[in-house]
Design goal:
about 325 residues, alpha+beta, EC 2.7.7.65
Amino acid sequence: MQNELQEKFRLSVLSLLGVVSVLGITPFVFIRYFQGNVLAAIIDLILVLGIVTLVGYAVRTKKTRVVSWIVAVFINTGVYAIVLANGVDSVLWVYPVIASTFFMVKPIEALGINICLMVACVFLPNVFDVISLVSFLVTLLMVSVTTYVYASRSEKQLRLLESLNTVDELTGAFNRRALTSDIAQALAIAERKKTPYMLAILDLDHFKMVNDKYGHAVGDEVLKDLVAITTAKIRKYDRFYRFGGEEFVLMLPDIPNQQAFIHNLSTAIKKELKTPDGKEVTVSFGVASWVPGTTADSWLKNADDALYRAKANGRDCAIFSDD
Ligand SMILES: Nc1nc2c(ncn2[C@@H]2O[C@H](COP(=O)(O)OP(=O)(O)OP(=O)(O)O)[C@@H](O)[C@H]2O)c(=O)[nH]1
């Protein structure tokens, strides 16, 4: 789920670039050809075909980050080649290329690519006899820096939006929307690589009593503490979600000993999760391992059924769905 907005944004920018390059550059393939500048026509043709192929690849594979990088370098190199082949007549193409680079790669990376292009432009022959090198560089720098500032701010806002979209405001755990998206991804990975994923639903025991006795604000603190304790016990690629209310979901790939892991986590929670007067707050676990043919619904249902049995068993215990 993380970076999903960014990937969608990159994919739409790449698609737009594909359309714009076909519509904008293709006519120049013919114009250059009929003007007798076959080399420039070939470079334009390579640019159009290259962009369309790369964009098509990104749409099919969703590998937007790496393709955006290749496209950014490709169009910067391409525009340099076309100015080299066609001279001052093509120099205005450098401006849209400079600006569009910021929509493909990270702002600081775009700035780096732009600076390389600007330095290379200094060595263009037969261009700066006609236009002023200083004006050209200053205007390029102005476009580059203003687009850098704009792109940096947009990137920050996108990150904030992503966090609002995927993180539970109270506890800082991932939210249910993130879980829905990540389960689909985990199922695809598990199916492809046969990774032994584990999904556990954690539910605080008698949490209503905590709220009733100590107040809602203390209940909130207990929820936050549970997230802090659990997060400290999992690896960086494991995920912890707030499923709703006092129910949480853990999704962990490649856990060699699932029983031992749950036992350790449960012990840590018993030891560390306390009410203000030092009373233990316990958790019940319903655990379901991925098996071939698992769907998102069946996975959650198996874990939920196991949790139900854990509650019926007296709480403060873990039940595995295959027990
Ligand atoms: N403080 C606080 N309480 C919440 C929040 N969301 C849900 N709750 C409370 O969680 C409690 C859940 O109560 P129940 O579903 O009866 O579960 P329980 O008391 O934990 O009982 P068992 O699950 O059967 O052990 C309710 O009192 C809800 O008000 C929240 O964001 N903050």
